[in-house]
Amino acid sequence: MDKLAAIEAMIAPTLDAMGYGLVRLRFTGGGRQTLQVMAERSDGAGMTVDDCAELSRTISALLDVEDPLPGAYLLEVSSPGIDRPLVRPADYERFAGHEASIETARPIAGRKKFRGRLGGLAESGVRLELAEGEAVVVPLADIHRAKLVLTDALLAAAKQRNGQG
Fold this sequence. Notes:
The chain has about 160 residues and is of the alpha+beta class. It is built from 4 helices and 8 strands; from the N terminus they run αββαβαβββββα. Helices cover about 30% and strands about 35% of the residues.
């Protein structure tokens, strides 16, 4: 099991019990090692600074006990924001109908960058309806980076989820 998978297995159950879901873990090295933890509220409400502080304290305590990372590092806890990254297969279903930007590790249909409306999961990957009127299925294994694109429809959906619309 790699480092991030071990950390996820360690902290995810506690986050779930606290009413949060883990969105993404990232570890960056270089001059200053940083463990980035991105989480969201399970009830769909927006994350607050207090939520991030509470998660930071809890995650820090868990990591101090298990000590899965050698040496010093910075713990960074954040929310995914409105134009959130799409990380898990369920994200593509959850945000179907919204616009997304997807970059692939290798060319698909002659290109590596796609932007279009998410059509959810297809049998072999993520269905994306491109602006040119075409549709493409991008294999999940080939997605290097994906995120929602900030649009009026996405903003309206976020306001509605947070009871502001």
